Amino acid sequence: MSQPPPQQGFGAPYEPQPGVYGDPGQPQPGPPPGPSGQPPQPSYGYPPFPTQTAPVPSGGSGGGGRSRGRVAGLVAAALAGVLVVGAGVWFVVGGDDGSDGKKAVAKESAESGQPGTGDGAKGGKESDVPGAAELSKGRKDGEAPVRWVENNRIDLPEGGVNAYGPWVTGGIAVQALYRTVSGHSVEDGARTWSLRLPADICAAPTTPSEDGKIVVGVRSDTSEEAQCDRIMMIDLITGKAGWKAELERKGLQDGLSDIVMAVNGDVVTVGRLTRTDAYRIGDGTHLWDRLPGPCQPFGLAGGAVPLAALECRKDPGDGEAAQQEVRRIDPATGRTVWTYKVKKGWKVDQFYSTNPPVVSLRQGGAEEKWAIAMLDDDGTFRSQPDPGTDNYHTRCGGDMRNESGNLDNCYGVAADARTLYLATEPASEVRPANAVVAFDMSTGKRKWKVPSPATQTLMPLRVEGGKVLLHLGPSPLGTDKVSGGIMALGPQGGTPQPVLRHPTPAVDAERTFRGPQIHYANGRSLLLSPYVSGVDDKAELELRTMIAFGD
């Protein structure tokens, strides 16, 4: 595990979870477009039970952003106030009334853009870890094979690093790890390209653009003091680097920490404490930053419906608790379509869904409160879940050890126009069973509750074709050889039906993916480990960073 000497970085220019809420207010017309940004944000998955302590991400200072903890239980409240129920979940609904010139196009990269297939470390030495064929040997009828496995090939720094992805597009699965971004064939895992970067990757959107491009955050250099202030566009099909840009620091409050990135169409946004910058992905044109007025976005959710979290302060240095808002905006201009005002004292935590809008809210203090607001398409408050006596659990970016964590990357929650699906919290690592609870989106009332298998955990991923797709984790119990897979539940509940069964012989390999990022499409699943760390060089080479299942 080497520690390379600091080197000069870039030059300038170069694509859902429970809680407690504040009363959602009526949508209000927002100010016209403009530019800006602010605080921190998280990502998603099923409850991991990590064996080693995860690094604690730095929270935003001053007033902004949301809590990264997952301590509070989900609560329900009457519309007129806040009510603690059962397991301590709070729901707060109803709101408090509170009161463009283009910059230069980012520069094209001159030195990169010629990806190779090399590893950038360790000379591509192979490990002794079992491969896909061995992990599939002896699988039971109905179980899918391990399609391929990717082991770590990179000399990692002491303590390990965050991994980003997987981004799957055009038959290529891409992961970003430390200072290397690599593309792999979805068919057999063969590395098709590898792009070495001059410094650590420090942020990235949850999803790429529809035409297969991503913009990642990279540190200014390799020193310990380096800021996450460079961004670079990468073509995920070819592995070629495109334009690069340097984020401009605006004032003392702009600490360039807790970076939140999102892709909406051909626009990428980079949110942080006090500011958001928007760029056109195609050519790197800077579109906007600060918006008119005291309310500035600190992060967006990616996808077809661009939702932004904003913080409102008359004075950027004001230490008083700030009002926060949710807005639907035009990502190319910053123009507000509608506004939902969050009750004062509550903060936007995550966007569990953007279509329909479902927002996780948190209130800090000695006993943190968590609520969920379900909105109509015009931003008006629709309902909030009635949690009953259950404790709920979602896994988002910050929970998965990623140092930043986006606002649109949560597992354990999914929604469509009629139903919100939430995972309950397992009792413990040795009692991992949980349940999935369905709530009526119009009333917030519980529709049904379906338990997981006795030694496994179910986490909603998304709704597709009227059914909620779920990740079923492998049993964490060493004596219990029960593998995971992808399951489905219809809108009426019932017994979870298998969509893809992972092979029993690979259960030990599957268990090494603690709290994984999960991609499922076309009858195949792909797991990525969000944090990679080994005790020594040999252990590093034996680490699996991705594993794919399916025929």
Can I get a quick summary?
This protein has 551 residues and is mostly beta strands. The protein is 3% helix and 37% strand.
Report what the structure shows.
InterPro entries: PQQ_rpt_dom (IPR002372), Quinoprotein_ADH-like_sf (IPR011047), WD40/YVTN_repeat-like_dom_sf (IPR015943). The chain crosses the membrane at residues 71-93. Keywords: Membrane, Transmembrane, Transmembrane helix. This protein is mostly beta strands. It has a domain at 304-384. Helices cover 3% and strands 37% of the residues. The strands form ten sheets. The chain has a five-stranded antiparallel sheet with strand order 4-13-12-11-10, with no helix packed on it. The longest helix has 5 residues, at 132-136. The protein is globular, with a radius of gyration of 22 Å.
Main sheet makeup: 5 strands, antiparallel
Shape: globular
In spatial order, strands of the major sheet run 4-13-12-11-10
CA-based gyration radius = 22 Å
Low-confidence stretches: 2-71, 77-105, 107-113, 120-125
Helix content: under 10%
Cα distance spanning the termini = 36 Å
Q: Mean of residue pLDDT? A: 81
Structural class: mainly beta
- Give the helix tally: 3
Strand proportion, as a percent range, falls in 35-45%
The count of β-strands is 39
Organism: Streptomyces parvus
InterPro entries: PQQ_rpt_dom, Quinoprotein_ADH-like_sf, WD40/YVTN_repeat-like_dom_sf
Keywords: Membrane, Transmembrane, Transmembrane helix
Protein name: PQQ-binding-like beta-propeller repeat protein
List keywords for this structure.
mainly beta; five-stranded antiparallel sheet; 39 strands; 3% helix
